[in-house]
């Protein structure tokens, strides 16, 4: 019985030590502004089968803690404006990817 307890304690200690210093995700942020500010509705960041969605507030949006990699960003628009798409948006570890000003067209 003592051997089982000692074995479980050793296994728990090893598991804790392995995960205690591990970074689970490499993440960054995506930000941008939409003009006209009142024309944008919401924004999506898509990578493979992962889709993130955020509202646009006062013409601005931000995605936080986004996995690193390349994304397609789609900005939804109110009529008479058309949605906009930005491709190959790179997110790097601990970096902010600023898309700048995205102008929605009629």
Automatic annotation (TrEMBL):
Native organism taxonomy: Bacteria, Pseudomonadati, Bacteroidota, Chitinophagia, Chitinophagales
Signal sequence extent: 1-20
Organism for this UniProt entry: Chitinophaga terrae (ex Kim and Jung 2007)
UniProt keyword terms in alphabetical order: Signal
One of the record's GO molecular function terms: carbohydrate binding
Protein's name in the database: Carboxypeptidase regulatory-like domain-containing protein
Transmembrane segments: none
Annotated InterPro entries: Carb-bd-like_fold
